[in-house]
From TrEMBL:
May play a role in hematopoietic cell proliferation or differentiation. Potential mediator of neuronal apoptosis. Residues 2-255 form the Protein kinase domain. It comes from Ciona savignyi. GO terms for biological process: intracellular signal transduction. Its cofactor is Mg(2+). It holds the Pfam family Pkinase. CDD domains: STKc_SNRK (cd14074). This is SNF-related serine/threonine-protein kinase. The lineage of its organism: Eukaryota, Metazoa, Chordata, Tunicata, Ascidiacea. One of its GO terms (cellular component) is cytoplasm. It is an enzyme of class 2 (transferase).
Length: 293
């Protein structure tokens, strides 16, 4: 069905390829996963990635079109962006983007996460590298749900995951944590990078970065507006219970007038709720994936 082309990226047990459909010519990204290299943990992450991406159907989330499985490989057929990722875009803008542009991009990311949380899906790896530009559609879209999971409101999660520079202190401490709050912290880091052009916790080594995250020690650059500074400082707070919630982010004065928020409200109610499979079937699927069946 698909002809594989150049390699777009590599991971521990997967490679992402550019491909096109042999009949329609449509370009897609295909994540090719070598099942023989997967252990139970990586199989679990893959299971959650597929489950959550199929569940979260939103204009600002990369579409998972199809999953194809062979004896040794698993192929995830994904929507292909045409403008690179947000990290590279930010790095081309010293001292950050103009706030009007940052506002529209950030509103789209917030729209996607607000929708995820309504479905009780937490991303847990929010960072500019996982936001892709779709310039032909005028959109940015969230991708890489490898650390995502379903959660029950009021119950805490315990898995330590994500990327150091974007992870909330409670995850790094290995504590049980409130799922929505860790995504809010990461959203704050993304907004900081959009308007400042650098990461808030960007030290010479991981040890120093970790110390500054744990102390919540960062400085917003002087050129950032007071309204934007206020929003950042209400997201990047050490105490999870004191962080601003998604609804309050959407209604924050700094985001007033963002065109993307109109779309966010129109897409705020899930079209349907899908059943979650039983734990027994989950374990059976994981076992088969690890065994390469």
């Amino acid at each position: 069905l698909y002809e594989l082309k150049k390699t777009l990226g590599r991971g521990h047990f997967a490679v992402v390829k550019l491909a096109h459909h042999v009949f329609s010519g449509e370009k897609v990204a295909i994540k090719v996963i070598d099942k023989s290299k997967m252990d139970k943990v990586s199989a679990d992450h893959l299971y959650h990635e597929v489950t959550c991406m199929k569940l979260v159907q939103h204009p600002n989330v990369v579409k998972l079109y199809q999953v194809i499985e062979t004896a040794s490989k698993l192929y995830l057929i994904l929507e292909l962006g045409d403008g690179g990722d947000m990290f590279d875009y930010i790095m081309r803008h010293e001292r950050g983007l103009h706030e009007d542009h940052a506002k529209e991009y950030f509103a789209q990311i917030v729209s996607a996460i607000a929708y995820c949380h309504k479905l009780h899906v937490v991303h847990r790896d929010l960072k500019p590298e996982n936001v892709v530009f779709f310039e032909s559609q005028g959109l940015v879209k969230l991708t890489d749900f490898g650390f995502s999971n379903r959660y029950k409101p009021g119950e805490k999660l315990s898995t330590s995951c994500g990327s150091l520079a974007y992870s909330a202190p409670e995850i790094l401490l290995g504590e049980e944590y409130d799922a929505p709050a860790v995504d809010v912290w990461s959203l704050g880091v993304i907004l900081y990078m959009l308007v400042c052009g650098i990461a808030p916790f960007n030290e010479a080594n991981d040890s120093e970065t970790l110390i500054n995250i744990m102390d919540c020690r960062y400085t917003v650059l002087d050129h950032v507006s007071s309204a934007c500074q206020d929003l950042i400082q209400r997201m990047i707070i050490k105490e999870p219970s004191e962080r601003i919630g998604l609804n309050d982010i959407i209604t924050h004065p700094w985001l007033k007038g963002a065109k993307s928020l109109g779309r966010a409200r129109r897409n705020s109610t899930p079209i349907l709720t899908r059943n979650v499979i039983s734990d027994e079937l989950h374990q059976e699927i994981l076992g088969r994936m690890v065994a390469g069946e």
